[in-house]
Known about the structure:
The structure holds 2 protein chains of 2 kinds. By secondary structure, chain A is an all-alpha fold. Chain A has helices at 2-10, 12-33, 67-103, 105-120, 123-134, 138-165, 168-176, 180-216, 228-235, 244-271, 273-279. The two termini of chain A are 16 Å apart. Chain B has 2 domains: 5-261, Rossmann fold (3-Layer(aba) Sandwich), CATH 3.40.50.300; 285-356 and 495-575, no CATH class. Chain B has an 8-stranded mixed sheet with strand order 15-16-17-13-18-19-22-21, sandwiched between helices. In chain B, helix 7 (193-210) links the parallel strand 7 and strand 8 (213-218). Chain B starts with a strand and ends in a 5-residue tail after the last strand. Chain A binds chain B through residues 167-169, 171-179, 182, 186-187, 190-191, 193, 273, 277, 280, and chain B through 340, 343-345, 361-362, 364-366, 368-370, 373-379, 383, 387-388, 390-392, 423-424, 434, 437, 441. Chain B: Its main location: membrane.
Amino acid sequence: MQKLLRAFLRHPxxxxxxxxxxxxxxxxxLGTLGLTPRDPLKLFAIDRLKPPSANYWFGxxxxxxxxxxxxxxxxxxxxxxxxxxxxxATLFGTIIGLLAAWWGTLWDGILMRIMDVLLAxxxxxxxxxxxxxxxxxxxxSVAAIAIVYTPIFARVVRGPALSLKQRDFVDAARTFGSSQxxxxxxxxxxxxxxxxxVQVTLALAWALLTEAGLSFLGLGTQPPTPSLGLMLAESxxxxxxxxxxxxxxxxxxxxxxxxxxxxxxxxxxxxxxxTQRREA
Amino acid sequence: xxxxLSVRDLRVGFGQNPAANEVVKGVSFDLAAGExxxxxxxxxxxxxxxxxSVNRLVDFGGGRITNxxxxxxxxxxxxxxxxxxxEKVLRTIRGRDVGMIFQEPMTSLNPxxxxxxxxxxxxxxxxxxxxxxxxxxxxxxxxxxxxxxxxSRLAYYPxxxxxxxxxxxxxxxxxxxxxxxxxxxxxxxxxxxTVQAQIMALLAExxxxxxxxxxxxxxxxxxxxxxxxxxxxxxxGLAVEQxxxxxxxxxxxxxYTKHLLNAVPHFTSGKAVRADGERAxxxxxxxxxxxxxxxxxxxxxxxxxxxxxxxxxGVSFDLMPGExxxxxxxxxxxxxTTARAILGLVEKHRGAIAAKPxxxxxxxxxVFQDPFASLNPRLNVEALMAEPAIANGQKLDDxxxxxxxxxxxxxxxxxxxxxxxxxxxSGGQRQRLCIARVLMLNPDVVVLDEAVxxxxxxxxxxxxxxxxxxxxxxxxxxLFISHDMAVVERIAHRxxxxxxxQIVEIGEARSVLSDPQHSYTKRLISAVPAIExxxxxxxxDATQVPSLVRPAGYEPPPANWREAGQDHRVRIExxx
Lengths: 280, 576
């Protein structure tokens, strides 16, 4: 673990990405604990639409709420949805991909065709459909994003799992009489950690964006709970009068995605067995 | 007479700082026109890098020549220092003055072009021939490399040809420019023994016809005995010995050469078989295989009749406790499939495999060919060694760790390796690890599927000795699968020769090796390269293994056997 962290700090884009994510997590934790500079929901009627200043770092909105504090809570909201949806997608995608590869033939066909159908829809559209059926809310957002990204994980897992299944060490395990769960976890899954880890960081970036998109359309987090997409939506009519209302949430989303992407790139480089071997 | 090629104090390095990462550390040699030099060494000795420096292909692998000169006499009589030449000049040398054939003929041919087009391209580039002229030249050169039915083969794609045929095509392409020097980098390592013998004989004949020089790179000192004029032995980037072939083989000076010569399995036609392990008539076989048939279905199309590959067809044998039965054959002969069927890794179509209940729940264990692929790279030695025990209901406790340490020590690995990972071991050490691992369950039978084939010769010899020791100590029976007659001679009590999915000859090792009866066994034995037989001439025999794809419902005619002595049976060949 320490070795991994050191490798990250040596990698230029890993360093930047990890710093961004650390800051976001810090903001999310502070936001959860209520340690924001001001109450994100409290209205300061006299201080409406104030530009950024020493008092209000990122300005205030139409109702006089502090943008910086709202952003912190918004980040928390986005992070919760991104991490939980990706966790679900990873879990189900991995299970589906592994079983499809392991059982092969008929099961492989059935499971992967279902995944193909899901994959054929544009991500936002599929999420819209699910939310339209179930109704908006945090839980629905998580479920919708998880369903959208499950097929990607299933594919990422199935390919390498198919080739791992043919390897001699799996045959060797069979001759020892190792149980299927043992072979699946020790021989297949353990060798899939590297591609999965990369995929998880990249999926986090997409999930962040999808969540913002859903909230922007009013289908994700519901007001008055602050969320990045919602803040963007509210700002669009005031774009000329109060540009900070749009700039700061947009920058927050962009930086977050950049952070995850840079981390993902760094992770891919670090976990690449070719670079690993060079170090060893 | 000036030599064709004169290499002086060649140093080649790799990486950012080539001078510090030297792979070749000052090698000098001369090669006269028409002469053949064999460069012999184990993997990592710098033999390939030395040869690749001669046409500077080494540059593309990241190598830099840091010192020395490579003076090549060109066909127009001028000389050129290849070590300092410009890339533009080098391109005119590659192909025209220096031809090259590689180890793996599948990857060095372009799969999307026909072999005819690829040979013609060589003629176009190097001789400026076009159209019908190039085609005629391609046909002519395919004839020269003894490809039967050359005309129709021109339209074949590489995947339609066997490994030996592909290597012939590679040789044909190299010959297209009539090079004065041919570099052959392990050209037969990926091929079966009988095919290897054919290619070696072909190279020798072509050399006599064209008068070209050859640099022949190999790890097998026995192989070059018949073809080389001079031998250079390399170790750790240095040429430790170079002299005429006879001098090196009969009177080696350097310790490493002696070591290599000792390690080479000397095939002695059954004189060196093991004396122990007389078959007791009373004992009961530990495995009895009766009429084993394994078929893999071939799907042709929706409505076309299905066929099947008859990988194993009616194989029967038995294995006594403590005995080694070697199954010998070439790739595609069904020997590995037989082993896999015995372990239940492939489904059998028909037949019976009866195993006597043994000392543990899984009395049959297997060691695979490639020690790099048969160990999970993400698990450490402790987890790898524990797996068989855990699979059979034991717990990872101190008693189990003691057994691991005992077995690791027994196979010659230090006991403190439990926390290391497979990539920290060499190939030989990994194979020892695999052997220790299968012994964890205290098996009665160990199936060794080409278990020493992927190892360097000197390592191979030590692992074979280890196997013989372990067999006595743990009273194991081995099913030893190999293509290498010389290796088999050292370990087998009995031998079964497999050809096209069937056993064609089976019997006591000495009897089979010294007095082979079946024509295929004879061919296999005559193909074994041996230092002792280097002055014998082998005729080229281009017989191909018959296709094993049969239409649905096909059953082979029943086998007729005849006795060729006590415990020696031969399948009667059909008249052709």
